[in-house]
Amino acid sequence: MDYSKSFFGLQKILITLLALSTTTMMLVKSRSSEAQSIENINANNLPAKVGTQQQIEDLKATMLKSWQQQAQTKGLSYAVPTRFQGVIVNAAKLTPEQKVIALTFDDGPWPESTAQVLDILKQNQIKGTFFLIGQNVKNNPDLVKREIAEGHVIGNHTWHHWYQFLNPQAAAYEINHTADLIYQVTGIKTNLFRPPGGIMHNGVADYAINSKYAIILWSSDSVDYSRPAVPKLINNVFRKAKPGGIVLMHDGGGNRSKTVQALPEIIANFRKQGYSFVTIPELLEMQDKNERLIANKK
Predict the structure, then answer these.
(1) Helix, strand counts (H, E) of the chain
(2) Is 161 labeled as catalytic in the residue annotation?
(3) Cα–Cα distance measured from residue 149 to residue 270, given in angstroms and rounded to the nearest whole number
(4) Of the residues 106, 107, 224, 251, which is catalytic?
(5) pLDDT tens digits, 206-228
(6) Which of 40, 46, 58, 102 has the most neighbouring CB atoms within 10 Å?
């Protein structure tokens, strides 16, 4: 069984609700057998006279609980091609015609701003990739659950976001303790890692590489952590934007109101330029497919 396919199928079930009457609900059919088992949840068990919005929330809660139980049992993880395990990635190597971009957000989950970012992504039907700080996961677990329920991808960003040099034992704690908590909260075993500040020589990146994480850096830095004016923030994003690129923004770690203000325009501008949006695993899968096609032609 390909659990990566099951994982994304289950996410689609969680975030896709079709038109509802006051008494009947329908779910989009998933390809996987696990998703099919969730489809069999009888919507008629919900109170027939409950308002439509309450029916939606009840069904989402039931489905999320079922999905989390399956994830905990199987230890679901994201599909990252083997060639990227233990490898540093700044961007995917794609053809100019493959105009896709990955929006990534660091340092969350964070009260208020993470929810605002999620609202914007939901309105625009975009999936992002969130690199989580362990202690923030501990303080805001419901936001992490929402990220998963709405189809986003999560990665490891250490427990404390420290920059100083860490010995192997401290580096192991920073990564493993965060990974353990993410698993407890979501049932997900992520093999995506972003070192705080993009620092590659303070111990944590070496530990992540040896642990076969894909080390995800970026090709386009919004510099939003310095809270520039919104036009400047947007210009920072597009100055080096390219097909296969990875955009760095922040949903946590401080006041992210500028990022929240800029995000709708960033999305609109990318779309005007013909871009579509993908998650980091999808981006890596595209490069892997291209390289396999080239190898098969030799």
Answers:
(1) 11, 9
(2) no
(3) 25
(4) 106
(5) 999 999 999 999 999 999 999 99
(6) 102
